[in-house]
Each structure stands twice: as structure tokens, then as C-alpha cells.
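Task card 7
Instruction: Convert sequence to C-alpha cells.
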Amino acid sequence: MHPSHVCVCVHFCMLTANCMLQTATRVLSQLKRIARAMWSNPPTHGARIAAEVVGDAGMFEEWKGEMRGMAGRIDKVSVADATVVTMQGCSTADQL
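Output:
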């Protein structure tokens, strides 16, 4: 390969890489803009997620199962807390 061809090839690759970097930078900027708009308005973002979960029967059943599990864990913690409080002889939260 002639040295001038190598120079042209390297120059072309550098231009292409630079162009790709500029394009990637612009795309990332736009994606950040979109994400900021979604995340800066949590009620709307949350409503979209909830609508998707509630609108899909399988996802909705999975969600209900997760809620039952969470409620069960909360109940266990409440019972354990009440047991500790009772064992310590406290009848009200003020005595803790």
C-alpha cells in the first residue's frame, strides 16, 4: 500500500470515528432529555407504569401476589414488635 493511501485511510477513519462520537454525543443528550422529562414528573411516570401493570392480567396477578407477601411481612414485624413491647412490660408507646 502506498503511504499516501495509508494517510487517506487513517484520515477517513478518524473523520468517521469523530463523526460517530459527535452523533453518539447528540443521541445521548436527547436520551437524557427524554429521561429527565419522564423522571421529573414522578406521578405521570408512576401512572404509566401502574397502567401497564394493571392492564396486563399476568402482571397484575404477579403484583397482587407481591402485595400479599409484603402485607404478610408487615404483619409479622408488627406481631414481633408487639411481642417485644409486651415482654418489656410496656402497655403504650409512651413507655418505650
